[in-house]
Write a structure and sequence with these properties.
Strand order of the largest sheet: 1-7-6-4-5
Strand content: 15-25%
Oligomer: single chain
Number of domains: 2
Structural class: alpha/beta
Radius of gyration: 19 Å
Mean pLDDT: 97
Shape: globular
Largest sheet: 5 strands, mixed
CATH topology of the largest domain: Peroxisomal Thiolase, Chain A, domain 1
Order of helices and strands: EEHHEHEHEHEHEEEHEHEHHHEE
Number of helices: 11
CATH class of the largest domain: Alpha Beta
Length: 328
């Protein structure tokens, strides 16, 4: 796998914590949110009155990446959308993306990957294998998108203070740039946080809506130290697989939900903070989009250069964790 180009999209103007509280009609400790989590501002389409949702975000991020790559979009043979906030339950958001980008029937594959907030790294791990296995695929477009604010119930302080909208896309081709990946799962932890209504077990009914049992639901408090315990082990496991040491990684990227946790993990790894990028200060928490958004930012701002070795670790509810390492 070689990364040809990346793209990014967020809807509308950013809103800081004070404006968010006013628009969403909520109250929270903005100072603590900024100091501990690092979240200063974010983009939320529906609070701005912007009529855009998941497929719109995916399309605009993909078009940005395609333009930067300078390729013919009809040469893309695979579209993968990585998200747990799809446009519809069915059809897949990737199908809508292919239709918008290519305008009709093509010999191109489409499917979505839902591994909660680890979706993009898991999708990239999958995409590079498919591109290598099928030489007919000239380019693949892998999009991480997040539209969790669309699933928030009115007055959800937890949700609105953290989650935000955004998308980022990679255009990849076959090559030797993907060094390896590692997946980890624990499906016994499915009942912590998620969107539980709308599927076959809990269809959306008038009774469920009246009871407020829809959208994002926090059923059990997530362990505060979970990622501190998970991420260093994922890094070392993958390093062992690819035969490299911690110091041989030029840049580390992690799920962008808590700046303090990322700093703590970098200290555990014995790595300087100059070797990581955080973007929650400008974009909030964008779930399955946050890792490619952070990578795009690191590239466009010059912290990651061609030839650098990058490792990304992403984790999400469920429990699902994915790590990947590549040469840029």
């Amino acid at each position: 796998m070689n990364i040809v180009a990346t793209g990014l999209y967020v809807p509308g103007e950013p809103m800081d914590n004070a404006e968010l509280m006013r628009l969403a009609g909520i109250e929270f400790d903005a100072d603590r949110t900024e100091e501990k989590l690092g979240i200063v501002q974010r983009h939320i389409a529906h609070l701005r009155g912007i009529d855009e949702t998941s497929a719109d975000f995916a399309e605009k991020a993909a078009r940005d990446a395609i333009e930067r790559a300078g390729i013919d979009p009809n040469e893309i043979g695979l579209f993968i959308v990585a998200s747990d906030t799809p446009e519809y339950i069915s059809p897949a958001t990737s199908m809508l993306l292919q239709g918008r980008i290519q305008g009709g029937q093509r010999y191109a594959g489409t499917f979505d990957v839902n591994a909660s907030c680890s979706s993009f790294v898991a999708a990239l791990h999958t995409a590079q294998a498919l591109v290598k296995a099928d030489r007919a695929i000239r380019y693949a477009c892998v999009v991480g998108l997040y539209n969790m604010p669309a699933y928030l119930r009115p007055g959800d302080v937890f949700g609105y203070s953290i989650f935000a909208d955004g998308a980022a896309a990679f255009i990849i081709e076959d090559g030797d740039g993907y060094l390896g990946g590692q997946l980890l799962s624990d499906g016994t932890q499915y009942d912590y946080v998620g969107v539980y209504s709308g599927g076959t077990r809990q269809p959306v009914t008038a009774e469920r809506l009246a009871a407020g049992q829809y959208g994002l639901e926090l059923l059990k408090r997530l362990p505060g130290d979970r990622n501190v315990k998970l991420w260093p082990g994922m890094v070392d496991r993958l390093l062992e697989k690819i035969g490299r040491g911690r110091d041989q990684i030029d840049h580390y990227l992690f799920t962008q939900i808590n700046k303090s946790v990322i700093h703590e993990v970098m200290a555990i790894l014995g790595q300087p903070l100059s070797k990581t990028t955080t973007v929650m200060d400008r974009y909030g928490y964008t779930g399955s989009a946050c890792v490619p958004m952070a990578f795009h930012t690191a590239v466009t701002e010059g912290r990651v250069k061609r030839g650098d070795t990058v490792m990304a670790v992403a984790s999400g509810a469920g429990l699902a964790v994915a790590a990947g390492c590549w040469l840029y």
